[in-house]
Amino acid sequence: MKATIERANLLRSLGHVQSVVERRNTIPILSNVLIEAMADGSMRLMATDLDLQINETMEAASVEVAGSTTVSAHTLFDIVRKLPEGTQVSLTASDGKMQVVAARSRYSLNTLPRDDFPIIAEGDLPTKFELPAVTLRQIIDKTRFAISTEETRYYLNGIFLHVADDGQPVLKAAATDGHRLARVTVPRPEGAEGMPDIIVPRKCVAELRKLLDEVEGTVEVTLSATKIRFGLGTAVLTSKLIDGTFPDYNRVIPTGNDKILKIDPKAFMAGVDRVSTIALEKTRAVKMALEPDRITLSVTSPENGTAAEEVPGEYGSDAFEIGFNARYLMDILSQIESETVEVHLADAAAPTLIRENDKSPALYVLMPMRV
Amino acid sequence: MSIRRLPEHLVNRIAAGEVVERPASALKELVENAVDAGAMRIDVRLSAGGIDLIDVSDDGCGMTPADMALALERHATSKLPGDDIEHVATMGFRGEALPSIASVARLSLESRVRGADGWRRVVDNGRVVEEAPAALPPGTRVRVEGLFEKVPARRKFLRTPRSEYAAALDVMKRLAMARPDIGFSLEHDGRRTLSVPPGQTRPERVAALTDRDLAENSVAVDLVRGDYQLGGVAGIPTFNRGAADHQYLFVNGRPVKDRLLIGAVRGAYADFLARDRHPVVALFLDLPPTEVDVNVHPAKTEVRFRDATLVRGMIVSGLRRALEEAGHRSAQPAAADALGLWQAEPVASPGPAMPLWSQGGEPRAQGYAQFHDRRPTFSPPPMARAEPAYAPLPESVSHPMGVARGQVNKTYIVAEAEDGLVIVDQHAAHERLVLERMRRALEGGTIASQALLLPEVVELEEPACDRLEERAAELAEFGLDLERFGPNAVLVRATPALLGHGDVKSLVTDLADELAAFDQALSLKEKLEAVAATMACHGSVRAGRVLSVAEMNALLREMEVTPHSGQCNHGRPTWIKLAHGDIEKLFGRR
User: Each residue of B412-429: pLDDT tens digit?
Assistant: First the structure.
C-alpha cells in the first residue's frame, strides 16, 4: 500500500474512528485501525471494539499502490494531530511496517495483518428509514442523561426505541436508570413500521452524537432485532444492540397527577443550584414546599446549616412538601427550552411528571426522595 | 427382622460417639469433672496428642470406692442433687462422660477422699479388669490410654497427633480462661506447654493465655442488666488479628462457641476495623441458670438463651461502651513497648529527638527491638493519663496529646507531650475526625432515600424473605424500603440515596445472608459507612500538606475530645507515642 493524504482530511477521519477504539485492549488488534487504499483514489478507515464498528471513507490525494494494513489507532491519531497544518502525509506499508512520512518527520509503525481484523457481520437489516439529523440529535440529547450506568441492569444501559400508534404513528425513544425516565416522541418516519423494539447501547449513542455534529440533512438508519447501522455521510456506524427486554415504562408514567406547578425552568434550576450549594454529600436532596403561588426550595446539611430560596411559580392546589435529588432535577430542567415548564405532582412519594406542555415531544418522570 | 433392645456396651459406644469424638473432647469432659470436684490445681499430661494417653489429676474432693463404681455407670452423677435440670450450676450433669470414655478406651480411675484410703479401678473398653487399693494424694486421677484402639471405625477418623494436640490445647485454654482461680498445667510428650498459677484475675489469665500484649491493649468490659452480668476484656481496635480465633465467650463459666458472639463482636467493632481484621475479646456472661439451656448438645459447646436478643444487645453495648472509654487511645506493639517504659525519670531534652526521627523508619525499628525483651511486667497506667512527673513546658500539662512542635515529611505531626513525644499521621487522624463528625450528622438526621421508578424484584428463598420482612421497619430507617412480593421475593421500593446506583440485588441478598448468620443487618450500615469514609477521605487533610502550628494544635485538641480517634477507619493507629525513657534508650543513655 502506498498513498498520500492531506493532513486535515486524515485527521478528521481518524478523529471519527479513534474514539471507538478502547484505550486498553486484551486483543491487540482491537487497538488498531484498518486502513485501506483503493485503486479509485479513495481510502477507508475502520475501527471496532467488537460491539461497535465505524467505517469512514475519505479522498486521498493519490493512491500509488492499492492495499491495506492495520496500525495503532491512538498512535497514528496523535502523530497526525501533531503534524504541521497543510502537510501531505504519505503512508507506505511493507514488510510488517507502515512508514508515515510528512514534511521532515518519518515514522515507522508496527502493523498487524489486516486479515485478523474483526468485522461485525451485519446480516440482514430489514428495517430501513431516514431521520433528519436534527430529530436524531434531539432524541439523543433529551434522553441520554437518564441512561443507566449500572451493569447489573444491562437492559437499561441504552436508549430504547420502539414504534407505537397513539392516534398517529410515532417513534418513541426512552431511557431510565430506575430513578428517572426521559422519553421523546417523534412522528414515525416512513419505513419504520413493523420495526422491532431495540435498545441502542450507551457507547453507540455517544459516538453517534459526536458524528451528528458534522451531519446535516438526514441520517439513514437500517436495523434488525440485533444490529443497527447509521449512515452519516462519509461515516457508517454499526452497532450490536442490547439483547434484553426494556421494562414496560408506560406503567410508571403517571396520568392522574392533579397538582400542577407552572414555573420558569431557568429560574427554577438556578434556585435549585443555589440552595444545593450548601449540601456536601453526593446526593444533594432539595426539599420543595409548595403553597399556592409560593414555592420554597430548601436544603439542610447537618454540617453546614440550611439554605432556602423562594422561586416564583404558578401553583393552585393543596400545600405539601416533596424532596428531590437536586442533580436529577437539574438534569431534567436543563433539557427544557420553553419559557415555562409543567410539573405534575401527586404526593411526596409518587412519581412526578415534568414536561414543557402537553404537546411537547419530550416528557420526564422523576421519583422523589424521602428526606 | 425383629426389634431388639441394644445391650449396655453398645449403648455406651453409641453415646461415646456423641460425647467423645476425639481426644480433645475426652479431655474436656475429664477436666470439667476436675473443675466440678472443686480442684485448685489441675495437671494434664498428653502423649501423641492424647491418642495414646490422657492423664488428668486434680486435688478435688475425690470419690469413695462405691461412688467410683457408680460413676462408671451411665447416667450416674453427683452433680444433679435434685431432679431439676433447669438449675445446672456445674459444668457436667448428664452422667455420660466417664462410662462413654471407658467404653472406647482403657480407663484407670484412682481417687482418694480426704481422710480415707485411695482406691483404683481399671476398665478396659467397657470391662472391669482391675480393682485394688491405691496410693495417691487426696483427689482424683484419671488415665485414658489407647483411645478408640478397639474401635477402628473411629480411630480412622482421628487426625495427626499434632492437630489432635492443637485441639486439646484449645480446649485447655478455654477451660483455663473460664476459671482464673484454678491453676492449670499441660504437658505434651514430656514438654510443658501451658502453665498458669491459681488465683489470677481474669485480665491476667486472658492475657497469659492469648497474647501478653493484650493486658496493655485492652479495655475492661463491665455491664450489668438485671440478673445478667457481662464482664471480660476487649482488645482495642488497633490491636487486631487476621483471624477470629481469639474470641472467647463463657456462659456461667462454661466455654461456649456461639455464632451469636461472632455476630455481636463484629457489630460492635464494625466501625473500627477493616472487614478482614478481627479483634481479641474474652467475654464472661453470668446469668441465672434458668435463663440458659446448656442441654442442647452432649458436648455442651452450644447453649440456647431464653432471651438471645438481650444477650446480643448486652455484648454489643458492653463492648461499645468499653471502647468509647478507650477514647483516643491508640496502640500497636511498638507503642505498647515504649509505653511500658515511660515512668522512668524523664530527661527533658526534646532537642535530640528531632534528628533521631529524621533518620527515617529504620532506627525506630531497631530501637524498639533493643528494648523489646526488657519490657517490665507491671501493668502500666493508662496511656494519655500521665501523672505530671515533670512538666517540660507549662502548656503541655493539660494536653494528653501534647503541643505541636513541628511537621515531618509534611505527613507527620511531631508533638511534645509531658510524658514523651507524640507522632501523629495527619491524614489518618483527620480522616477519622471527619468521619466521626459525619457519623454524628448521620445519626442526628434521617437517611435520605431515593424512591425507585421501577421497583426491583429480588428473588430469595422463603425464610430469607421472612427475615427481611421482619426487619423491614429497621431497614427503612436506613433508607431501604422493602415489601414482601409473593412467597419467594421481595420488592425494593427505595434505596439509600447515599449509595447511588448500587447493585440492589446483591445488597438485599447480602443483607438476607447476614440476617441468617448474625441476626443483624450489618452490611447496609457498612456500605453507608463506606460511602461516608470515602467522603471523609476526600474531605480531609492529605499527607504532603504543610500545616501551621496552630492547625496542628487544633487537630491534636480535637483528637483528644473525639471518641475513637486512636485508629483510622481501617484499624491502623493514627498516632504513636515515644516516652522520654524510650528516647534515652535509643541513645543508650540508660
Answer: 888 888 888 888 888 888
